[in-house]
Amino acid sequence: MQIERRTLLTGLASSAACLVLPRAAAALQLECFAAARKDGSGNFSAALFTLDSDVQTVELPDRGHDIALKPDGSEWVAFARRPGRFGVAVPVGPQPPVWFSTKPDRHFFGHGVFSADGRLLYSTENDYAHAQGVIGVRDATDAYKQIGEFSAHGIEPHDIALLPDGRTMVIANGGIETHPDSGREELNLSEMQPSLIYVDARTGDLIEEHRLAPELYQLSIRHLAIAAGGTVVFGCQYRGPEEDAPALMGFHRRGERPVIVEAPAETQIALRNYIGSVAADRGGGIVAASAPKGGLVTYWDVTARRYLGASELADGCGLAPTHQAGHFLLTSGEGWLAKADASGAMSRQLSDFQWDNHAILVR
Amino acid sequence: MKPLLVASMLMLTSASAAQAEADHAAIARASLTEVIRPGYAAFRDAADGLKTNIAALCETPSAAALKDAREAFAATVAAWSEVEIFRFGPVGEKHRHERVFYWPDPKGLGLKQVRDVLANKDEAATLPDELAKKSVALQGLPAFEYLLYGDGADGLATRDGATPKGAPLPEIPTDAAFRCAFALAAATNIDRIAKSIVEGWREGSAYEKSFLGPAPEDPRYHTPKEVALDLFKSLTSGIELVRDQKLGKPLGASPDQARPKLAAFWRSGLSLDNAAGNLEGVRALFAQGGFAQVVAGESAGVENSILFDLDNAIKVLRGIGAPIEEAVKDEPSRAKLEALRVSLKSARDTASDMISRGADLSFGFNAGDGD
What we know:
- The complex is a heterodimer of chains A (363) and B (371).
- Chain A is mainly beta.
- Chain A is built from 3 helices and 28 strands.
- The radius of gyration of chain A is 19 Å and the shape is globular.
- With 371 residues, chain B is mainly α.
- Chain B folds into 2 domains: 42-209, Up-down Bundle (A middle domain of Talin 1); 223-358.
- Chain B is built from 15 helices and no strands.
- In chain B, helix 12 crosses helix 15 (331-358).
């Protein structure tokens, strides 16, 4: 009981520091992050937190995945992990959270993004009866009611982001067919069609579509980050034979061809064909990509498109930028919260939670 | 604040870490020699028998030959069921698992493709090399089941279905002759896959080397723990497979909501045997693969209660004595199956807790989740 009170008080104190200060002053303060997680009793939640304490938490009915932040920082949204159907928008302040869900014949893939003006929320969803990916559109000014939907132009849209122009959206279509009746079973590994898609966020119109070389059809494009100069950096998971160990990191700018870049051979193998999340640093010049199966977080130079180094963190997956260029927050399923950079230097602390795949910097 | 389970795991002393590593290596060796190799050898033998029986059926059709072929099919399903829980190793390469057993198939993709091939008499489906390049849904045991038990299968017993030994299929074959030629190609393909899996695990193979001698530079397994984790996962997900997919889905919430056609092998009446076979595989892995000793080390006697639950579940499944479409509508059978699902859950949870503690094995929260 005493412990709970202390948590609450620290939470309130940090809340003042984290939320009330103007954003310009926030750079001097502790960073404030958000992520989904599971506690030692098996309860799921999502939280706004600093490395010192929780600031705001919301209990989730099941496991969460990514968090989307309203551009003005006034609300954050947690999505269910696939094949879940719930989402919750949490205003940063005293207002209650707003719960929403997919249509009955859809489920979330766990990722979403706000429009530049913060009025609309886009989410990647599965129209599983037709094995088609869709982007759900909800009205953030009206209780997140769904007001539309458009095609993701591929199967299994996973991560999604808005380009700096505020109008173009980029979607990572993993290309793997799943159906809630079969749990998380992957149904079409021999016929996968991953793609990187650009659409007009206002109309859903397809602007640009990229597929990888035919021999890389089992390289599922799943996570991405917008880095310096509007470069889209994407991380893949390979579903073909383990010993193939193909390159998993891609770089792309509109109008060009995607470039897939390898890590040094021994690191490439160590990634275990699996990138779990991708994040750009504060300046956008360095991108981190986690490999939870390999227990590594890798760092990449966006301009030079090359591998910089790695940190070791078992089951490390969640990544977020920090206030310091080149430095990232790393979270792990074994409870660690860490700060690290491409030099491999790391400071870390153990928390009471198993942290989920993704994290974001709120301010 | 609540201590995190994984945090305590990080505090293993180096002595117990070395012990854990030795345990993992022992589990890998016992599982390979006592369970995996004999299991796939039995599947290969059954698949070889199926091919022989189908060849005889196509050559000299008769009711007796069709009956023999169906019995060979049931034997092949039984042998497959015991190794179905394994998704790593040679069966995980070249889509072999999906090619042998494309399931679940909620959209009925396999059925549709098989019917299309039959309707069009697509000659490529009668050539094993060509069939192997076609959709995985056309190649495996569920597609094969339709050929032996679906609409028109009885024609296989008539002289219409005959193709003399060594003779090519006529340009315009009868429905039955085409069906039999397709079945023979499918049986040949399954037999080849089974042989490839056995070959992939043989002594001196690359897989054996990775499995028994994992090393940091090895592309498949870096440490004995990773091997043990794959086996542990087969054990727990094997029980979940039976509980949720094989039984839960067809049973539904009530007799009215039952969906027996979601069951594997409902056409041949082998659904419950398939589920029982899956549990036989789990039981073998638990008892002979070294996991029972780990549980016994944690709490002596608990390993026997897990074995009791598994044995009882197998007995109940074998004793239902009716095809699944009848069982799911019959209240006493439903009650037995539901009770069995409850005991399977408790067996799985107990085994999982004790093994993860006793052998220091836990699935990555993020690494294991495929997102």
